[in-house]
Amino acid sequence: MIHKYNLVIVFLFSLFGAQAQEKQNKFKESFKASLVVTSDFSYEFKKEGLQKSEIILKPEFSYRLNRNSKFVLKGQLYTELNDDLEKGVPKENTVSDFSKRLFIGDRTNLELREFYFYTSIKSKLRLTIGKQQIVWGETDGLKLLDVVNPQNFREFILDDFEDSRIPLWSLKAEFDIKNIGIQFVWIPDNTYHITQDFDAPYFAKSLFQSPPEGVTTVFNKTKKPKRFIADSDIGVKLSTFTKGWDISLNYFYYYDDLPVFYNELLVTETDDLVLTINPKFKRQHLLGGTFNKVFGSSTFRGEIAYIFNQNFTSTAPVATLGIETSNQFKSAIGIDYIKGENIISAQLFSDIVTDSVSLYNRDKFETNTSLKISRDMMNDNLNAEILWVHNANHGDGYIKPQVSYWMNTNTQLFLGSSIFYGNETKLFGQFKDRSRISLGMRWGV
Amino acid sequence: MKTKLIIGLLAIGFLFPAKNNAQSLPSGKSIADKTHARDEGVSMSRTLTMELKDKRGKVRIRETTSLRKYFDKEKRLAIFYLTPKSVMGTAFLTYDYPDPSIDDDQWLYMPALRKTRRISAANRGDYFLGTDLTYEDIKLETRISRDDYNYKTIGKELINGHESYVLEATPINDDIAKELGYSKVKLWVDANIWMLRKADSWDVAGNHLKTTEIKDIKQVQGIWTYHQIFVKNHKTNHETIFRISDIDYQTEINDDTFTKEALVNGI
Fold first, then answer.
1. Burial level of A276, CB count in 10 A (0-12/13-18/19+)?
2. Among partner residues B86, B122, B256, which is closest to A444 by beta-carbon distance?
3. Do B265 and A128 touch (CB under 8 A)?
4. Of A118, A298, A412, which is closest to B86 when you measure between CB atoms?
5. Using an 8 Å Cβ cutoff, are B257 and B61 in contact?
6. How far apart are CA A389 and CA A392, in angstroms?
7. Distance from the CA of B78 to the CA of which of A89, A262, A445, B114 falls in 20 to 30 A?
8. Contacts of A38 in chain B (CB under 8 A)
9. Is the pLDDT of residue A16 over 70?
10. Which DSSP state fits B126?
11. pTM of the model as a whole
């Protein structure tokens, strides 16, 4: 009798054991975890010292519920050993409460970079809900349509966009009607660009008019949209692939990620002149599109963006609160030529302010160019590339050469430099004292 | 009389040996056609691991999930990088059209940029993602080209104990030779399952360039499938081993896996 019970118990245990093992195996199959560690140490020539001493840990977890659905979580532990780029604990006034970083002292912060649920419903509708990055556009280096997510400008545009782009709580729905892919985005997260303080290495002084001599400046708190629904951004992208052409049409109704710096010169009771700056985020519409097609060894690509009611800082004394409004047309055409292990990529950017307005520190029609030459060597072990971005109107720009080398399967080393040149009142030239040489490493497991 | 007949037959045999030999060996074109007629299933998913070893012995490993599906005669292939983790999410999509005069369409998704970049497929002789196989080699997948070469079937040999036809292939013209990067290729094609078992290739200058060996060929779900490709580049002494596992021809793959959007969303 006891023997029979023993057999039953052994059978039940083995059954539960098998079930537990099966569950464990299923979990192992569904759950994926990884960690990427990057470091970047940059030496500034002018300062003769470190400009950046960054170590980033990027853990990533995904859990697949079934063939069609998954959760993805990407975290980040960011440490800047010398606290050079974003000094102290930034106020993050332009960031919503849900997207703020958690600072541990001045040098370290934790951030939930992405946390979303992805599902494909009967292969007809694909939904991505949660904190994520949504990227539009075809261009490299300078952005036209890539305005869905804001950016942290702690390194101007030198940081990888993957790191500087700020993920937002949003919904992305994708479905097809015949051969047209439709993407709808809804972004209730009221987070905008993180710009830098006056004492930061990458404070963009070219955006601000200097106050007249002897005038005190009062910088008021930025007025930020707060309403969950009414202040959310929405966008639609239609895309298709036909006769070798990749084409997209984009529309975005959004708050410009940079506030409008309304300013007013006032006389106080003591007859002192005070310049009051009242930054406020303003809504605008963007209509644009992209295209690309391959011709032989070359890919021809382009991007256009037409922005309605863009606000500009004005030099006209009659401008209301120092601001004038105009529509703006931006375009870019590029060509990527691939031959063997070599890639040559050239882009021409045009930016036209359509109305007659008196613009501060920019021309009505601006042209930027970029050239990137890249070569893979030793079976992609070694890569050397150089990027040159140049503004044709003002003669300023930057050059970024870089060499990267895979030491082994998981470790890649980088050695590069970023050299700004040109008039120091202009967009790129203002950072010519920030030119630097960088050594970095990327390791993943 | 009997002796005269034997002598006569022998004489005919000596006089026309080449003709007799040629009759017993199939033409290169027919072998090429047979490699293309091989059953590959409609769809396939697999884990593809690429082991890259340089002349100093340093090894780098790239692990991918590779998905392939036929849409009528058009073949679509998507490759998603799983490791190294720092480039995880990199994905590659190809539309391979049945008309050989139409270039493939290719896209590469780069997670660091979060952008899908259209890339030219015109350079068939370029090396595939740092390996020792070219894009064209990868595309053919142990079949042999029907259009690029003039073939000569030169005999039969045993490769790993398997009877194989030996073919000498020369590009149909200099332009094709430059495009492919080969001036001559020697091929060993399995005479029973019509799968390439070995290839030797010479560069456009006539130097011995590469040896490719297809190994561990066995049936998976009724379809002849290779599980390893070894390639040695004799000029650089670089080697690549492609290891194929978790092969599945039966689980249906959604059509929308082979879109630009799917590259972004990953697997």
1. middle
2. B86
3. yes
4. A412
5. no
6. 10
7. A445
8. 86
9. no
10. S
11. 0.89
